[in-house]
Amino acid sequence: MNDIEYLVGSGTISVQPLEPYSEEVCAFAAALSDALLRDSEARRYPDVMTFAFWCRKGNIAAKKAKWEKKKEKRLGRGLAFQIAPSNVPVSFAFTYMFALLSGNATIVRAPSKEYPQIAIICGEVNKLLEHYPEIKKRTMFVKYPANNEITEKFSMNADVRVIWGGDDTVTNIRRCASRPKCFDLVFADRYSICILDGRAVEQADEDKLKKLAENFYNDTYLMDQNACSSPQLILWKNASEEVKIRFWKAVFDFAKPKYYLQAASCVDKYTKLCQDAVDMRGLKNVVRFENLVYVLTLDRLPQDITSLRGDCGYFYEYDLNGYEELINVITEKVQTITYFGIHPEKLRDFLIQSHVRGIDRIVPVGKALDMDVIWDGYDIVEMMSRIIEVK
User: Fold this and answer.
1) Do 111 and 145 belong together in one domain?
2) Which of 330, 323, 320, 383 is nearest to 359 (CA)?
3) Quick one: 86 and 202 in the same domain?
4) Is the pLDDT of residue 41 over 80?
5) Of 277, 266, 301, nearest to 285 (Cα)?
6) CA dist 15 → 40, 80, 133, 167, 219 (Å)
7) Is residue 51 part of a domain?
8) Which range marks the domain in which residue 224 is found?
9) Shared-domain flag, residues 27 and 171
């Protein structure tokens, strides 16, 4: 166990459960929000600001008020051991807060990569915990290299494991022994798409188009398309070629002064383009805006759309004739649809009536990365707490 680095906490933790949305947890969340919003270094990172804004007093109070309308009485399950995803720096903080709001003590394994966002958030948490003793004794952030022995030790003390990661990561961690009643909440590999209405893009004035491009950039480039909710495949409705070019040009214009494309990523993108040009069936056209935006136009969708994966500004697009085309390609792997110019309720109703196995979120372009207590179709606070029933 010498490989464990304690970012927050010291190796001991209280497992006495609290009620969901306890007063001290809500106060701590608001204080953390205020501290991060005041931190000049934190303001350099949009994802940290997103987390801070989510934790603000008003947002947590609204969630608590909605929660209190439920009839059943609950307590946290006890101790949550959480393995945060390695590709989204701030997810460890969201999953930590979800566990606290659920009434659990929590051990969070943070990503081993040296993200500055992790240091910033852990620094503020460490400062605040001195003023919140009940939270302090229920909080531990650790970092350690892949080690099943350590993972198993933490698992054997946990009442719930929250596992974020690719399918291989999830499978490997599930092999680690846990207590008989330990409950696993799993967030495995997912895939996401975007639906744009060409007429809405065409009618957008320059300011609205620039905002759309900014929102799309935030959904994709901020995480190099590595987040499970970042769209890889863009589906167009009612779009001419001129409208598509207008959109992609706006994305390029917004990305060019902001996004740093590393040389290795540039080579990888071009190599992937060459491979797709040789191997891909249904490839109709390729549009490039320097090295920042690659768009591959398809004349058909493969049976497995999750094979259409790019990063660092590498996208696939397809003209959607109707939502009926989605039925055979939406599998349980597909998580989020971002949209612009369509009616989300109509799309949701169609998907429900079509009995599709995938899609848990339909959100506007710009909201792909917005995490919340409802994720992957789970109400996380409900899943991480238990009902105490009286009859």
Assistant:
1) yes
2) 330
3) no
4) yes
5) 277
6) 35, 9, 14, 29, 37
7) yes
8) 191-364
9) yes
